[in-house]
Amino acid sequence: MKAKYGRIIIYRIKKELPSGVKSRLLQKLWGYKDKSNFGKYTYKREGLLDKIPHISPIKGVIIVRGKDYKKIFEFLKDKADIFSRRIILTSKDKKKLKV
To answer: Which residues contact 11 (CB under 8 A, 6 or more apart)?
Structure first.
């Protein structure tokens, strides 16, 4: 059986960024729930990771397919410290990432 590879991305948002910029960055990455009319209506606003199959084992860590790595890296490169490596995916990971 041929091994399939993915990428693990470990990131930390830069401390010098203002808190509003950090918050907006995370909203764009992960998406968020938006409420209107004093909480009467709730909307799910999509983020970048809603369109990409991923695994997030803990805060600040994302596992994605190799071909999706570039999108996330380009999004985070100026705003976060990033550490990334290629990893071998288990069968459970392959199923979640749709490889």
So the answer is: 60, 61, 62, 76, 80, 81, 82, 83
3-state secondary structure of 89: coil
Give me the amino acid identity at 42.
T
Residue type, 78: D
pLDDT at 31: 94
Query: Cα-flanking dihedrals φ and ψ of residue 7, to 5°?
Result: -125, 135
C-alpha–C-alpha distance, residues 30 and 32, integer Å? 7
C-alpha to C-alpha distance for 62 and 10, rounded to whole angstroms:
7
Q: DSSP class of residue 66?
A: G
Place of tokens 């999108």: 71
pLDDT in tens, the chain (99 residues): 566 899 999 999 999 999 999 999 999 999 999 999 888 899 999 999 999 999 999 999 999 999 999 999 999 999 999 999 999 999 999 999 988
User: How are beta strands 61-65 and 54-55 bridged, if at all?
Assistant: antiparallel
